[in-house]
Amino acid sequence: MKLIDRVNDSIAYIRSKTASNPSIAVILGSGLGEYADNLEEKVAIPYEDIPHFPTLSVEGHKGQLVFGKIHGKEVVCMQGRLHFYEGKGMHAATYAVRVFTKLGVKILFTTNATGGLNENFKPGDLMIIKDHINFMGDNPLIGENEADFGDRFPDMTNLYDPELIKIAEKTAEEIGINIQKGVFIGYSGPNFETPAEIKLFRFFGADNVGMSTIPETIVAKHGKMRVLSISAITNMAAGILEQPLNHEEVLEMGEKMKPVFKKLVDGIIEKI
Known about the structure:
Strand order of the largest sheet: 5-8-7-6-9
Mean pLDDT: 93
Radius of gyration: 17 Å
Number of helices: 7
Strand content: 25-35%
CATH class: Alpha Beta
Order of helices and strands: HEEEEHHEEHEHEHEH
Helix content: 25-40%
Oligomer: single chain
Low-confidence stretches: none
Number of strands: 9
């Protein structure tokens, strides 16, 4: 079955559950999923109920689409994303974004939990992604190109939308959040990076590292969506501090960051 046919099957099921026509999709990263609980007129659809939709295996990710409204705007939130390291491939990891494209979503707003590489950062900081380095060893556009979704060779200039970045910076300033801006590098995982790899990533010019976001962003750009991505710096990467890393630490810091994250996302969506 062609990708467009699978996506149409998924959309038909979604349309049977909600009449929402979201223009904004928000992907909620590790420990940040509860933001979707703030939507008005919520309709939650578990991934496992949607035809062809990949399911998840990572703690801290509920696994459902939540449709609703924020500031009167129709939004869909992903409570949990499929990661490349779960072994289902890049096409599965980006399937939701393909669905969003055909649902009519114009803006993809992604969030993630990341390790800080820049020594001026600290756990608890938020960072706007201004560009990325794909070090994941794969690309979601490899394979046959289906013209229903985009061009064979999409341009990646201004991958992260400059106007949306300005809105995010202005919003952060207005609500008193000191927000960072930098280059994100994607790593396949699921193990955390080695100190030697972190040294290499810093040499490349990366400011933070994580195991998601890049595949979704590439596919969104392929589908001519505008993208804004904000990282939560939940820990410093291996070798920056003399302490081991663990996923529980990521979830714990994500929990602490919820209030400031919610405030920032609310402010940005209100202005988009």
